Amino acid sequence: MLIKTRGIVFRTVKYGETSVIADIFTEDKGLHSFIAGSVRTAKARMPYNLFQPMMVVELVAYFRDEPNALNRLKEVRASEVWSRIPFDIRRGAVALFLAEICRKCIQETEENRDLMDFLLDNLRWLDQTTTPIANMHLHFLLQLCGFLGFQPQGDIDPEAVLFFDVKEGVFCLEEPLHGDYLPPDLSARMIALLYSPLEQCHEVQMSRSERKALLQKLLQFYQLHVPGFQGIHTPEILEMIME
After folding, report:
1. The CATH number of domain 2-78 is 1.10.357.10
2. Radius of gyration of the chain from Cα atoms?
């Protein structure tokens, strides 16, 4: 059947001499793989730059509602045009990180409008904001895990000294006996980010070393709760370019 929908490109790999295969999270059908022919040519009807990670596109495709089906794209055009993400090295690096995380975590092949809106809101903010973006990837991880079903739990007492148990996914008053936890100072930063709206996430004060430590533990948290979550490469890029 022929479908017309909006989608976000998570990953693209070259196929043959001029084609690509793209993993696209669509508004109507969830995550699926699409093949696009003759896009890596000078006169391509569907330009290759539309298949960069986290591009938002309108697509028309011949779609087969079958597991692991490879669907053929008929038309693709930009749904939203980013003015800063492609040209700002920091914003571009964050977008690549978001794309890698999404591709590793999001597997559903059904419509999920709330998740689609969440991703679009984050991309629009990343492209348009004039505030610092150094905390944005951490905030994204903390909000995305709620959509994936394992958001951190526990009673949050603002006056208590809390540890975050990475294995159990809970905030607790006592230091866990194992080593997979966040100490109280980083747990407090994590709580502040968890309950901050995206537009205010830059107000959570953290040093570069604290961001690195929190990112490492959050990625470990994902590894423990998302099957097959490993081999994330973009944090190294973020570390090099973020202040």
Report:
1. no
2. 19
Per-residue pLDDT band for 242 (boundaries 50, 70, 90) equals low
pLDDT band with cut points at 50, 70 and 90 for residue 41: confident
* Distance separating alpha carbons of residues 137 and 139, to the nearest angstrom: 5
Domain boundaries, the chain: 2-78, 89-241
- Going along the chain, which residue ranges are E strands? 2-15, 19-26, 30-36, 56-62, 70-78, 163-165, 170-172, 181-182
Write out the DSSP string of 167-184. TTTEEESS--SSS-EE-H
| Residue type, position 236, single letter | E
Class of domain 89-241 as given by CATH: mainly alpha
14, β-bridge pairs: 20
Examine the pLDDT at 234 and tell me if it is beyond 80: no
Say what the pLDDT of residue 239 is.
Answer: 73
Walk across the sheet containing 170-172 and list its strands.
170-172, 163-165, 181-182
Which amino acid type is present at position 187? S
CB atoms within 10 A of CB 135: 24
